[in-house]
Amino acid sequence: GGDGGELLPGVARVERPPEAAGRAGERRVDDRLAVGQRCRVDDDAEPGGAAVVREQVVPLGEEGGAGNLVICEVVLIRVHDRVVDENGRIDPRKLDAVARLGQDYYSRAREGLFTVPKPNEKVGVGIDQLPVEIRTDPRFTSNELARLANVEAIPKGDVHVPIPHPEVKVLLAAGAVEAAWKTLLGQ
Predict the structure, then answer these.
(1) C-alpha–C-alpha distance, residues 127 and 120, integer Å
(2) pTM of the model
(3) Apex CA 32: angle with CA 26 and CA 37, to 5°?
(4) Distance between the two ends of the chain, CA-based, in angstroms?
(5) Does residue 140 surpass a pLDDT of 50?
């Protein structure tokens, strides 16, 4: 819209991005998400060899959990109808955004302060190291995956199939990550 605050209905209802098809090794688009973004990372060089870097991936270290800084162009924003008000604007009360405050502290727009415990002395293994059956399972939220990946080492064993999601979710919500892993591994 003209003031930047309105959603453009034609853009908000663009076809589902390719991730929705669930390509091997990738998480599918989660319909529980209120807002999703589709981004492009492009490190192409212009003709003649002059590098033009509009978007890039910058490694932040080599050790486990170091991560990457991703600088990209947002090419599509998907907004679920449930967070849009009668005027076509995102309603922050419906969105219930989460803010990172530092250390273990976060805040939700409707619920206030909460914590996500992290090992403060050592770095967790990271989501990329989770078993593929867990990492790509759309029934786990990003928060739950982060809690499972926030261990110094993944316990030995094979993932129990079918994955007992309700029990694992209750354990993770209670902060019992070790017990959640034992349940996942059928121990």
Answers:
(1) 17
(2) 0.46
(3) 60
(4) 55
(5) yes
